[in-house]
Amino acid sequence: MKPIIVFDLGGVLIDWNPRYLYRKFFTDEPHMEFFLREVVSNRWNLQMDAGKSQQESVEELSRACPQYRDAIIAWMRRWDEMLGDSIETMPEVLQYFSRTGYELHAITNWSAETFHFAEKKYDFLQLFRTITVSGREKVAKPNPVIFEIFLERNRLKASNCIFIDDASRNIESAYSMGFETVHFTDPSTCIRELAEKIGDQGLLQFIEEEVNVP
Fold first, then answer.
1. How far is residue 141's CA from residue 167's CA, in Å, rounded to a whole number?
2. Which CATH code for domain 4-15+85-211?
3. Which residues pair with 163 in a beta bridge?
């Protein structure tokens, strides 16, 4: 029986980076990095990934940091400008898995209000049987509840699934629940580790011949 392959999206398949937007606001790189780290922080963004409305989040932060009001509002009004291309070679990996009969799912930390941008931009998302979006479920990784929702809804066992994510805290949470895991650092390393875990040398051959991954 082939394992179920479960992907994270941002940082694994999709190049999401707020810098694509905020380099249009800040001419000083250190100032921009301060803004991303201390104002529109990962903790703040995670609230929206866990279901809090963008409107409420942006209004609260704008009141707390009025000097950055325009840049904070842009997070809501120009969010799609943070989306880059797909991560190199990873859509081809998905295509291989789909053609060779693997069941594909995704679990992503993503606001329910912005996920439609990804659905419109990236055709390969159609290859997934299901996509569990944290903003829709009102709970985000690494909270184990989102993994429980995924497993129960799809009637799957964690031990039959391989989960790929670029965040170590999410990998640790999934592993604690019984998932086999691959910590994504770069496409080549991920592909080789996946091929080893599933015992599929055809994946390595396909990628080396068709995509020229060393």
1. 9
2. 3.40.50.1000
3. 6, 181
Rounded Cα distance, 67 and 38, in Å: 13
- What burial class does residue 49 get, using C-beta atoms within 10 Å of its C-beta: 0-12 exposed, 13-18 middle, 19+ buried? buried
What's the 3-state SS for 199-213?
CCHHHHHHHHHHHCC
Pairing status of strand 130-133 against strand 104-108:
parallel
- With vertex at residue 80, the alpha carbon angle to CA 104 and CA 144, rounded to the nearest 5 degrees, is 45
Check if the beta carbon of residue 113 is closer than 8 Å to that of residue 54: yes
Q: What is the DSSP string of 81-145?
A: GGEEEEPTTHHHHHHHHHHTT--EEEEE---TTTHHHHHHH-GGGGG-SEEEEHHHHT--TTSHH
pLDDT (tens digit, 9 = 90+) per residue, 25-59?
A: 999 999 999 999 999 999 999 999 999 999 999 99
> Which amino acid appears at position 17 of this protein?
N
Q: Structure tokens of 138?
A: 């009102």
> For residue 152, what are the CA distances in angstroms to 148, 156, 172?
6, 7, 20
Query: Mean pLDDT over all residues of the chain?
Result: 95
Q: What is the pTM of this model?
A: 0.94
Q: Which residues of the chain have pLDDT under 70?
A: 210-214
User: What's the 3-state SS for 88-101?
Assistant: CCHHHHHHHHHHCC
